[in-house]
Amino acid sequence: MTDGEAGGGAAPVPPSSWSPLRQRVFRMLWIATVASNIGSWMSDVGTSWMMLTLNSDPLMVAMVQAAGSLPMFLFALPSGVMADIVDRRKYLLFSQLWVLAVAVTMALLALSGHMTPHLLLAAAFLLSTGAAMSSPPFQAIVPDLVPRADLAPAIALNSLGINISRAIGPALGGLILSFSGPAVVFLLNALSVVGVILVLLRWKTDTAVQRLPPEHFFSAMRVGLRYVHAAPVLRTVLVRAVAFFLFGSAGWALLPLVAQRELGLGPGGYGVLLAAIGIGAVCGAILLPGLRKKLTPDSLTVLASLLFALSMLALAFIRHFWWLAGMQFFTGFAWIAVLSTLNVGAQRSAARWVKARALAVYLTVFFGSMTAGSAIWGKLASQMTLSTSLTIAAIGMVLGTATALRWRLNQDPDLNLEPTDHPPAPESAIEHDRGPVMVSVEYLVEPGEVAAFMRAIQEMRRVRRRGGALTWAVYEDIRFPGKCVEVFVVGSWLEHLRQHERHTVNDKRIQDRVRAYHQGEQPPVVRHLVAPE
Q: What single-letter DSSP state applies at residue 445?
């Protein structure tokens, strides 16, 4: 009996925005993660402000942002691979224990007076390494914590939790800095991680039944990168991410310097500016569903980018505290609008079997742009002025919106990458590691339809490459016009078996369009050839 037939044919009740919180593990992990993110934001404020007291050179202050972003660029993809091939709960536990150890060490160094600028940068790098390890698996475990119907509200709740912590953490961190100093902030960050560790320890996951052996690390990474290369929607998201975050990083990297040098603020005032950004982000998260009904993703990101550029100009020239705090509200609003839209684009462009790896590539590009941008704008500010650096970044962001003309986020709106049934590979006693394997599919096409068939089958290249094919080509028999043979090669028989498991609804649609050109009652002839041992 289907959902629609249950209860006398009544339509299923759509999930509410809060329905995922009925799931005990999700609820506890959500609360613990919000607390941990508050601690992380407090630590970020403490780190930036401590660097100002140790070395106020603009490049060194901007390098705090770079040190916090670089690990995501370096380690997000390896972490995404790990999240797809190992026990995610154990991997998350390891990452949280790593963060706990680094946070405690930072607190001890600050308390003892042994913290130096270079040690602070190293600590920020190691702390962010823990975040890089945990981010892909945290995103990938959501389907394991809630029913499928609650998946979209669960993702929205996670975004809301991040923005709640963004609103509370900086202000609370600035307040604590005013009275106690960075050491206490670092210690509270360490304590905030404990809740996540306890929830993960109590979470008992079901053991998944694996029909095929797990992927090896390096081959899984190659497959993930090959998938990204063959996914045009995801590539569009990556281009748009670079265009925004490379220039947007200036606002985050130079804000501490504007607060201290230009406004003469202490840690409390700096925390208020960050809290204004957080409040704007929370308001943006609340209003985004309504905005998405009225604006296309491209229109929304372009308008938000222009608003963010305006807020950077305000940071460059406004020197009245409350006026600037008001403009930082729009910084948060614009930031969450772009970030959320790009996240949705990355999520919808990744199939479930490779989701952690695909999202890790997105995170790599995101934080790589933030890292490079922070270093560039910090260096420029040290040689020129803060206002000049922020103005150039704002102009660059305005020019970057032109990428929406060529790379459109709303392309292929009907893309469906949910798994679907696919005919199994032929029964064979071939060992899994035998290969490479060449697969040929022979189509019989009306000679007058060959040109149209060739155009249609080009989409199969992306299907095969996304599934793991190393090469792909299509040929026509010169003796029998209309006899066309599609050929692709995979690394091993095991990789071909995985191709069958990776088939999606979108792949089936493309395959059906191609096979519509095939003539005859019998389906296309498929052959499997394995290289001799």
A: B
> CA 501 to CA 495: how far, in whole Å?
10
Give Cα 500 distance to the centre of its chain.
26
Distance, in Å, from the CA atom of 56 to the CA atom of 131, rounded to the nearest integer, reads: 26
- Amino acid, single-letter form, for residue 386: L
- Single-letter amino acid, residue 280: G
At which residue do the structure tokens 């039944």 appear? 209
Report in angstroms the alpha-carbon separations of 202 from 25, 90, 114.
9, 12, 37
CA 207 to chain centre: 26
Token readout for 43 is 């630590």
Q: Which residue stretches of 258-320 are H helix?
A: 267-294, 297-317
Q: Helix, strand, or coil here: 365?
A: helix
Burial class (CB within 10 angstroms; exposed 0-12, middle 13-18, buried 19+) of 433 = exposed
Determine the pLDDT at residue 194: 93
- Whole-prediction pTM value? 0.76
Q: What 3-state DSSP class applies to 454?
A: helix
CB 410 within 8 Å of CB 263: no
Task: Report yes or no: 490 and 430 within 8 Å, Cβ to Cβ.
Answer: no
Residue that the structure tokens 């990355």 belong to: 346
Q: Say whether 446 sits in a helix, a strand or coil.
A: coil
Q: Are 135 and 343 in contact (CB under 8 A)?
A: no
Token duo for residue 74: 């370096």
pLDDT in tens, 200-239: 888 876 655 556 667 777 778 888 888 888 888 889 999 9
Q: Which residues contact 230 (CB under 8 A, 6 or more apart)?
A: 461, 462, 465, 466
* Secondary structure (3-state) at 18: coil
Query: What size, in residues, is the chain?
Result: 533
Site of tokens 């071909």: 496
Strands of the 437-444 sheet, one edge to the other: 471-476, 483-490, 437-444, 525-530
Q: What's the pLDDT tens digit per position in 384-437?
A: 889 999 999 999 999 999 999 889 888 777 777 777 776 666 667 677 788 799
Nearest to 422 by CA among 370, 346, 499: 499
If DSSP codes are grouped into helix, strand and coil, which group holds residue 490? strand
Characterize the bridge pairing of strands 437-444 and 483-490.
antiparallel
Report the distance separating Cα 174 and Cα 327, nearest Å: 19
Write out residues in the chain with pLDDT < 50, as ranges: 1-13
